Amino acid sequence: MERIYIGMGSNLCAPAEQLHSAVQALAQLPRTSLAGMSSLYQSDSLLPGQPRYTNAVAALDTDLAPLALLDALQAIENSQGRERLERWGPRTLDLDILLFGDRLIDEPRLKVPHYQLQERAFVLYPLAELAPADLHLADGRSLRDLLKACPFVGLERLLQP
Asked: DSSP letter string over 18-50?
């Protein structure tokens, strides 16, 4: 079993409910157990004119292969109404593999660590809630250094119901 971190985001159709439904679906994946979910955070969209995003990170322990997990994540997205009409467009659900154990993955369909992880406060701060304080990514970068370089700006941590 490897520890996997999944970035989750939604800005359509009751985003918080979309994320909670996604976590329930993640917990049902074969050969996988849910290890935790971060708080929810809201942030502005990277593109103007879109609704604000709600984001979180889930931690899984799995022995699924990386591309098998990616296929399962995309099936969950599709089951929750995800439509891929435009790059970075509004979405009911986005699930991204952020970290896959200590693996570096460079496949046409999958790059791990996630290629924009270091630029995304809405990913790093929820990740820091779940990951060990001394976490180092497979490429050698430390989560602590990434957090220092990506301030908590434009984020709002939501109170959990």
From this structure: HHHHHHHHHHTSTTEEEEEE---EEE--SSTTS
- DSSP E strands in 31-160: the ranges are 32-37, 41-43, 53-62, 94-100, 105-106, 111-112, 155-157
The pTM is what?
Answer: 0.94
Asked whether 124 and 147 are in contact (CB, 8 A), the reply is yes
Catalytic, out of 31, 52, 94, 141: 94
Task: Please identify which of the residues 87, 91, 109, 145 carries the catalytic annotation.
Answer: 91
- Active-site annotation holds for 96: yes
**Could you give the domains of the chain?**
2-157 (3.30.70.560)
Per-residue pLDDT of the chain (161 residues; tens, 9 = 90+): 999 999 999 999 999 999 999 999 999 999 999 999 999 999 998 888 889 999 999 999 999 999 999 999 999 999 998 776 666 668 899 999 999 999 999 999 999 999 889 999 999 999 999 999 899 999 999 999 999 999 998 899 997 64
144 noted as active-site residue: no
82 tagged catalytic: yes
